[in-house]
Amino acid sequence: xxxxxxxxxxxxxxxxxxxxxxxxxxxxxxxxxxxxxxxxxxxxxxxxxxxxxxxxxxxxxxxxxxxxxxxxxxxxxxxxxxxxxxxxxxxxxxxxxxxxxxxxxxxxxxxxxxxxxxxxxxxxxxxxxxxxxxxxxxxxxxxxxxxxxxxxxxxxxxxxxxxxxxxxxxxxxxxxxxxxxxxxxxxxxxxxxxxxxxxxxxxxxxxxxxxxxxxxxxxxxxxxxxxxxxxxxxxxxxxxxxxxxxxxxxxxxxxxxxxxxxxxxxxxxxxxxxxxxxxxxxxxxxxxxxxxxxxxxxxxxxxxxxxxxxxxxxxxxxxxxxxxxxxxxxxxxxxxxxxxxxxxxxxxxxxxxxxxxxxxxxxxxxxxxxxxxxxxxxxxxxxxxxxxxxxxxxxxxxxxxxxxxxxxxxxxxxxxxxxxxxxxx
Length: 425
Hints:
The protein is an alpha/beta fold and 425 residues long. The protein contains nine helices and 21 strands.
């Protein structure tokens, strides 16, 4: 390790600032373009270095004081030291540059960032880590690049109703029968304000813990679930599902299920994605990685015939219940892998369009089937520009073109970039 002075020129995918030292790239987390920093080289590779800031010798004129006192230690946010406008600028620029460089997407197809309406208080879900220590019961998030838990009393990017529930849970769990066995709490809030908590527990006093938590949940008005190791989930009290409002629909999902964490921005994301499809009666859409129906149900409401595929069976159960509760027809859901679904469910002429919303790892296994099935239009919703670019390359080489690709800011104060890309045959 050695200490060096670096001028930060830009930001990178992943959130770090980047400068140059002896012709080699130096990546420096928590820096800002225009900073002059004293930093310590932590890893020295052949073509680049990774460093940690020791001191900001000359701060960028655009650097600001972070709102959260834990910023820089907590691993949740990377960009609180950047103004919202600058965050948006870099998300748009990094997304466009990566698609151009890695996939050859032309400038004419790169659409502007869809900004988030709220930069704070937008998270509807969080996984809060717990530890029992000699100093007491800790509830918070992991320290950056470690599994050490930082004790946090509240988070400014969380919905305030979750912060209030967090305070109540800290007292109930820390003063309960076996706090040492509790290692995580999954907190969520629905559009109507209902709160749900899933307590992850590894211990031998689950019956006693469940009895105490049930009484607490009833008094606090929080739906509670207890998951003991890998055993069955215990429903302690309250409603099972959380609900979000979307296109005049009410969509529920159970504990352990998935929904976008930014409920307000999710509505804009769905409108952008399904608005890119010329939906009419008998228009056929395959929705891969469909979850509980976030895109499938609004598509059906607009008249499409939809087949939804998702390998997490509880989400498919939620999707079917949501379709029934909203009196929607023209929907079929299958609990199976997305790989092979296009050819299994419709063949080479079975669908007019495919919409896919894969996890961060992308959809590399599905791309060959898209090329074989050759739907006229593909809508690719991505949470990782790098895997999106990787998956676009074979599609563009196989007769498709990107009509437009638009980044979406779902996660202010972080480097993460959601996006929607329209791809036509």
